Task: structure prediction
Amino acid sequence: MTANHNAFQAAILQGIPTSLPPKHQFPAGVNRAPKRKDILSKEEKYLAIRNALRYFPKEWHAELAEEFAEELQDYGRIYMYRFKPNYKLYARPLSDYPAQSQQAAALMLMIQNNLDPAVAQHPEELITYGGNGAVFQNWAQYTLCMHYLAQMTDEQTLHLYSGHPMGLFPSSKNAPRVVVTNGMMIPNYSKPDDWEKFNALGVTQYGQMTAGSFMYIGPQGIVHGTTITLLNAFRKILQPDENSGGKIFLTAGLGGMSGAQPKAGNICGCITICAEVNPKAATKRHQQGWVDLLIDNLNELVARVRTAQENKEVVSIAYIGNVVAVWERFYQEDIQIHLGSDQTSLHIPWTGGYYPVSLSYEEANSMLQENPAAFKKEVQQSLRRHAAVIQKHTDKGTYFFDYGNAFLLEASRAGADIMAENEIDFKYPSYVQDILGPLCFDYGFGPFRWVCASGKEEDLDRTDAIALAVLEEINTTAPPQIQMQLQDNIRWIREAKKNKMVVGSQARILYADAEGRMKIAEAFNIAIANNTIGPVVLGRDHHDVSGTDSPYRETSNIYDGSKFTADMAIHNVIGDSFRGATWVSIHNGGGVGWGEVMNGGFGMLLDGSPEAAERLKSMLFYDVNNGVARRSWARNEEAVFAIQREMERTPQLKVTLPNLVDDDLLKNLF
Ligand SMILES: NC(=O)c1ccc[n+]([C@@H]2O[C@H](COP(=O)([O-])OP(=O)(O)OC[C@H]3O[C@@H](n4cnc5c(N)ncnc54)[C@H](O)[C@@H]3O)[C@@H](O)[C@H]2O)c1
Result:
């Protein structure tokens, strides 16, 4: 044991320190969170300080009250920077954590991974991704949480209220070790400004999806999902004798998730043009090798794209500028766009998520600070222009899809001509409606993932090989409906290491259905029991079959009217929690915005034990088939097929199936 290691363990065990730590020094070059809205009244500011001081002994209050007031003034939030620990934050091997419970140690590993500066977007402010996806609201919550996890036994459960550790409660071995809720609000208090206000008060947080549930594994997850989406989008538009060579994919955003688009475009073999207004973001992605070329001039862009088309190059180009300008210029130049999408951050349109085409990047940033109301108008006008030019291209054959960033929703709210004739649907599908829903989620395929808790690369290699063997075996008897999905994922897992996308923990993502997830997990558990690999943490993105109710994204292909309900996500978190999850989480918010989605996830430690073998079967089965059953009840034929097949395999499963009505019968009823 090194001195550093001992100090790390001692700091965790201690929790809130016994003497006041020195003031915090910010590391150089770290990406800091933007200043949040100054939304609290004077009275509310007093309340925020009073709330923050609850974590500390009285004798520190005078000093801390002033410091926290300053933080509130300067950053719009109280992060309690002074209490950020001195030790390095990263996923250590499981055995490094001081713990009474291996399951609790697995949680510590995953929490630290989400806060690792190599992984997290704004590590000082405990934000993992998405601009506001918080692991905790402040450093006191982190410290206290780790302290509880270090002492807890397998007969206690820690309850986290939006990052706040309410405490350890007696439970049982079969209960989850941690229950996480993030941003749960009384529905009438779930507007964007409610998040600003209650987050500033220190009583709620935006957990995004995997940030607040400790299951983020860096950009690899998003590259895989984007690749699957693009592959299938091309399948939709290409003739059987065509391929994606020389075809154009135009989109926007080179940020956290959006930055995966050019890489996925290259994997799919097309020409990708990705506009990004922020030169820093574009340059960063270029330096990281996620996009091939940087161009900041439209004439040059047009010329380069024509050359790429002639040579059928596989190339990705970052255009530094506004995406609307590219759509418009390509229309003038008669450049055919085959696939079009958008990943600007329209889940936060008024605070810099979307830059209007009428302003330069600098002008937009000043207006955003100085005149937010005028900025909002510019955004709305730009969205109308954006939608209008997309329409011109789709009239010429472009396949445009919404990438779950609330583009269609915000464009419609801005008054853009974007609604279908029935005035209910949008003119264009979302990627879930047309692609991920019917081809993946309805069959139970979704972003299963795992982390090798030993921290060893060779363990990840072994798990890749195990997963590959399992999928190949399943594929030998799979029905034709799911063979393409299996083959895409066999190809992915075969090439996963080559794509070099591991950042932070030794993690892997792989789309799999219930059968695949259970068989892979079972094979891992056996390998752990045989000491071939160390313990493994299982999980998934919340962006999945059953965990998320989100009417414009995960459940946008639900057409029985129930897409505005959130029963599925709630059943899922409750169902997983008594079937063996090590931790469960349920969040309000996520990628499409506060109040727009309920999403949940889980984590499960596999330790090679017979109990783990039982847990994985019971929980993974429900975690996927809950959503397949609901999708089937919504009359989605792929899901009806999948759940009937599952009932044949599993006699204890009895799901209510829908009876389909003859449309003619309804014609003259009203
Ligand atoms: N990739 C996925 O699988 C996926 C899935 C669902 C939803 N999303 C959504 O995609 C959006 C983007 O996510 P992110 O993490 O990349 O966010 P981000 O904020 O890190 O990146 C968005 C980027 O868009 C740029 N931008 C804004 N307006 C622009 C404009 N008019 N022209 C050109 N560039 C512009 C911004 O400068 C920013 O860098 C979010 O709303 C997210 O919820 C992504």
